[in-house]
Amino acid sequence: MEDPSLERHFRGHKDVISCADFSPNNKQLATGSADTFLMIWNLNPKARAYRFVGHKDKVSSVQFSPAGNLVASASWDKTVRLWTPTIKGESTVIRAHTAVIRSVSFSRDGQHLVTASDDKSLKVWSVHRQRFMYSLNQHTNWVRSAKFSPDGRLIVSCGDDRSVRIWDTTNKQCVNKFTDYGGSVTFVDFNSSGTCIASSGSDNTLKIWDIRTNKLLQHYQVHSSGINCFSFHPSSNYLISASNDSTVKILDLLEGRLIYTLHGHQGPVFTVAFSRGGEYFASGGTDAQVLLWKTNFDAFNYKEVLKCNNRRLNPEPAPHLTDIHPRSPHLHTASSASIEINPSFNVADTQTLDPPVVDVGQSLFSKTQHRVSSLVNGVPAHNEWRNSRGFQQRPSSSKRQEEEETHIETFTQEEQTMHNSLPPSLSNTLEHIVEQLDVLTQVSLAETLF
């Protein structure tokens, strides 16, 4: 059996990496950061990376649509953007909530989005009609995460009110609630079959519930600090988690135990995600780098994985003199709880050059800055207020007023061209250069022209 191995690292963000997601075809990786940028990395080592400019505050969540033709990003600037992941950098801006948005997620069919916010609400949106549909409002504190079930009939959410709630998307009611948590619930998701949910918390725990029986199936406390994120392997046999203790851990869900502890990040790890096929996973954190790992162990028969892992964790100990007859009571050295993977020692090639980065979407910057910063649905920004935790919010309004205030702004290609700071001829020349020339020529010309 092969251990997980560090394939590459990506550097290009200037601040904490907060979120990550693989494209459905496993050729790209999207990441969001506190530096306000969305970046899309190509897994081909020689391909360029794209930095999408538009958000005015930290990017908190990112996800590719199931078809891969859109990328949704959520931000502390209270907006969600739907990006077309191309060199043009086109995006649709959704004025989604009245406070920081923590999470955005597509339904499995790509028809809907669910967003979660510090305004204590969830909101569901139609993607193709680009229209707000309805709110879910029973959380009593910030909502940290929300996900659709695989069949789209349920939504699971969690937050700082120390609860996990399950919602029926048909009648728009909360149909179940789990409250056995010692702190904020930081992340939640369904397994691939939709029969179980997992949740992580600031109390260092990770729990898995069977939603058919409402029973707690597994309870893990393998991290020494709060867990920020996790991801199910597509087989639902494994789960990876990211923690403030600077580690990524891999759990064997069938046996109910920890099998790997991965080191490599300097400081808390905020995000981790398996690729759609499970061959890779990515992690990111406060060190502003994205680590791309190859899973390896999932390519083997599960029973072989279990056998090899047990053999390595519990090797035959060297015989003690007291093992020879007649025996007397004695202690053997304790075995490790998991296999430790430290890429500083175990990975030969971590010196891959960072890919060249191309900025796209700059034409949106000046226009959205005026609309978002200067006006909030026609109300001057100075009428906003800051709560005790430092985030801007507006005074609460009735549900009807809130839904009327929620709207979408779309920026067409013509509008982008009008507001582009570069002349059209130069813009076209740059686009042609980026699309046609090899990487070294692109970098040279980009530096010259910019």
Q: What value does the average pLDDT take?
A: 79
User: What is the distance, rounded to the nearest whole angstrom, between the alpha carbons of the first and last residues?
Assistant: 49 Å
The coarse overall form would be globular
Largest beta sheet: strand ordering: 2-3-4-5-30
What helical percentage do the residues reach?
A: 10-25%
Rg, Å, rounded: 24 Å
In this structure, how is the largest beta sheet organized? 5 strands, mixed
- The poorly predicted ranges are 318-335, 345-351, 363-420, 437-450
Which strand-content bin applies to the residues?
Answer: 35-45%
Q: How many helical elements? A: 7
The class by helix and strand makeup works out as mainly beta
Number of strands: 35
List the helices and strands and how they pair.
Layout: E1 5-11, E2 17-22, E3 28-33, E4 38-42, E5 49-52, E6 59-64, E7 71-75, E8 79-83, E9 91-95, E10 101-106, E11 112-117, E12 122-126, E13 131-136, E14 143-148, E15 154-159, E16 164-168, E17 173-178, E18 185-190, E19 196-201, E20 206-210, E21 215-220, E22 227-232, E23 238-243, E24 248-252, E25 257-262, E26 269-274, E27 280-285, E28 289-294, H1 302-313, E29 339-341, H2 343-346, E30 357-360, H3 363-374, E31 375-376, E32 379-380, E33 385-386, E34 392-393, H4 399-405, E35 407-410, H5 413-418, H6 424-436, H7 439-449
Parallel strand pairs: 5-30, 25-29
Antiparallel strand pairs: 1-28, 2-3, 3-4, 4-5, 6-7, 7-8, 8-9, 9-35, 10-11, 11-12, 12-13, 14-15, 15-16, 16-17, 18-19, 19-20, 20-21, 22-23, 23-24, 24-25, 26-27, 27-28, 31-32, 33-34
